[in-house]
Amino acid sequence: MNPDLDALKPYPFEKLAALKAGVRPADRSPIALTIGEPQHAPPAAVLEALARHEGDVARYPATAGLPELRETLAGWATRRFGLAPGSLDPARHVLPVNGTREAIFAFVQAAVDRRRPAKVAMPNPFYQIYEGAALLAGGEPLYLDCNADNAFRPDLDAVPAEVWREVQVAFVCSPGNPTGAVTPLEEFETLIRLADEHDFIVASDECYSELYLDEAAPPPGLLEACARLGRDDYRRCIVFHSLSKRSNLPGLRSGFVAGDAALIEPFKRFRTYHGCAMPLHVQKASIVAWNDEIHVRANRDAYREKFAAVTEILAPVMDFAAPRASFYLWPAVPGGDDEAFTRELFAAEHVSVLPGRYMSRDGANGNPGAGRVRLALVAEAAATAEAARRIRAFIERRY
Fold first, then answer.
1. Is there a domain that residue 365 lies in?
2. Burial status of residue 312 (CB atoms within 10 A of its CB: 0-12, 13-18, 19 or more)
3. Does residue 269 sit in the same domain as residue 362?
4. How much is the pTM?
């Protein structure tokens, strides 16, 4: 077996299961705020399209995807991020993928050159696929701490030039998982300039981009920053988008990558051998989803209501920044021990949360996730509010 497999760390939910092992929770209905799996209803029109085209399972799909799907994806990204009409060529700049998780992992395998130093920069805390992809590609994770004093975004100026020179891929996650932090356009532009200077790829994971609290302020994206800089070739830049969060379709496994044609073409070649073309009936259902914004606005409204309710309940007893986007809260825990808080909350209230340290790695200044928990507000409104009330009652009793 590949010896690099031994470098992989246990997944956060494996650690959580070990932490809760042997704990007998209170005799109450369980509520999980752990996994970022949307529980809102999928769009009916997408389900109807899946059924209508189910006969397409008898045909092999092409890696590049249907031309009409690529045109839909390019059109959506052009509208959403204000790109110059025609600058995002469906044939050269866009590729459908089976969700961002699969695409992020595969892209790093295709992008990293093992013949030279291969650091892969990533926010810390982070989505663990960034780390695992780097390790299995023969790269070295470079953890960029995201703390409250920098609005939970990496301090790019703190990275020395000699370190940037060894970076081959730099990940951005905006809106951030688990922090909900949004990367401003100026910061994207700084990363692009650093990439030009030190010859690395900027990879922006934007799978939460359509879940934002202010309807008038959608989060910006990397392609938008390219457009603002006049880089219509999107050189050194690639973005990842998905229907999982936007459209409550995590099981559809449908997304896309877009950006620099010089990155898309070899990645497509890699994927041809990787054998992960999107099934045709999924492609046709995806066209329906990307062409409809009504269900997405309704989805945002539902999350806004939940954030408002949970904030009202928890703000008096927990310290957290009001997020601009995503469906997570990232509060500090009373007492400062996120593992103890998680275990005791589960025992007392049968509510599951995720310790922040499980999504982070230790650095020179400690673990930036320690002392916090991630709350995924993905359940229906009543269950989410009930979980918040139980958390507050636990804190008021215990602390």
1. yes
2. exposed
3. no
4. 0.97
